[in-house]
Amino acid sequence: MTAESKGGHVLSRRRLLALAALALPAACSTSPPAPVPVAATAVPTVPPITFGTPSASPSPSASKSPVAKPTEAPATATRKAEVSSRGGPVPFQAGAAMMGSYLALGGKSLKQSLALRRRQLGREQRIVHVFYPWNGYVPRSEPDVAKSSTLMVSWHGAKYAGINNGSSDRNIVSMARKLKGMKRPILLRWGWEMNGDWFEWGGANNGQDTAGYAKAWKRMHRIFREQGADNVAWVWSPNWNSGPNTSWNKMQRYYPGDDYVDWVGVSGYDFYSESPKTLFTPVVRAYGERKPIIFSETAAVEHGGHSKAEWVRKLAAYVKATPEIGAVVWFDTDTQDDSSHNFRPDTDSATLAAYRAMVRSSRFAG
User: Fold this and answer.
1) For position 144, what pLDDT does the model report?
2) Which residue among 99, 112, 206, 339 is buried most deeply as judged by most CB within 10 Å?
3) Per the CATH hierarchy, to which homologous superfamily does domain 6-364 belong?
4) Cα–Cα distance between 236 and 210 in angstroms, integer?
5) Residue 2: how many other CB atoms lie within 10 Å
6) Coil, strand or helix: which one is 358?
């Protein structure tokens, strides 16, 4: 998630230097420790950082520049899903998107949270999203996650120089071996939202060296390949808009190339009532013909009335009309102690009904 601000501007975030203080993830323990909060800042909506919990990042407000309307597709829900070679170790299925979540529900372990959503939705999470720090313990398996689920691991980034000079190779090798040892398909989302200024791995905090990000990505990709981590699909995942919104910081400048990316992700939340078209069409249009698209972080917030349920219905319609989308991952949590937002899809009966209808539709049969 990214920092949001009033009035449509992105607020700068202090660099994330507290990774060493992270606790073990809920996914790795039946008795997870309490989250470790980040030191207070003036930026709103910043969830606490814990090992296995994402650094704060609700997406910034929408730019008001117009975006092209997505091409209307045939009713993809009625088409037979076809598995293609796109997506690498996690194949893209035409017409059958995967649905998943990052789950961190107050007072519940990951296992309990998964069980609750299973009862409510009548199905497993197709993708289970977890967060790991750049340095630290990574479990060899995820005992609370169904065998039918794919893990999406958001791996914290780092300063590019420390990767490109080879001093991080041992850490990269360790991660490659551990993910390989999980023996299940893994979506690896490294250094996400690099086109924002709220993380230490963003271009704004690395001397505007966008090429350095791409170089670091390629180095890690090579090391994973050398270690035989063939179960890992690489997810390149910018924020839906850039902060700062300048020419040097356009998301395309960070792209390492088609040979190094299996899925293209995007983060986008309706903090200022942005439509799904506004949030996601730029990425779909830029990359959808070449790569399957995954909404790697998204959720609706309440703007009064039944706005949250209505946004879920808009999202469902948008995905149905956009065949390039292969997965949607909800940021399903209510644990941001310093945020007024509750991203859970069951905050009211109307929203839960809309969410259930979306995830149980044939479009989400992946």
Assistant:
1) 80
2) 99
3) Glycosidases (3.20.20.80)
4) 14
5) 30
6) helix
